[in-house]
Amino acid sequence: MPYTLKVNGKMQTVDVEPDTPLLWVLRDTIGLVGTKFGCGVGMCGACTVHLDGVAVRGCQTRISTVGTKAVTTIEGVGSTDIGAKLQKAWIDHDVIQCGYCQAGQIMNAASLLTKTPHPSDQQIEAGMAGNLCRCATYTRIKSAIRQAAGLTPALAEAPAPRQVLADAATAPKA
Description:
It is built from seven helices and five strands.
């Protein structure tokens, strides 16, 4: 059955069964593979996307229920002010380890900051509780969210590794 969706600001027409999870429409039909399959039962958060700015689990959201809601994925969230701030903060705080859950983490954090622009630590913990990280970078995730919300200053940019090595190679010998 054909469905027309607005995904990351672009209209997409797909021909899938009504009970097809949005996750598989995004990944297999449209080709946006940033949204990950984790548990398949909506418990881990790796498949988190936005429907009209609200975080939902893509593995549990049937295409027939999307209707006219705008879908935003990790590929599109950086075009929003909050998404861009989160992506920068994620890099600044070196949040990513294996990276598998991070798209869902950022999508959930963006939804949290949309609803609660200046969350307390308790609100961050409660808002992010449904997103699991196998590498346990929860402290870094919280720090990145605090930075994106303007609760803490941005970290100073570190010099590029090649520059550090070049400087060390040309430094006077003691």
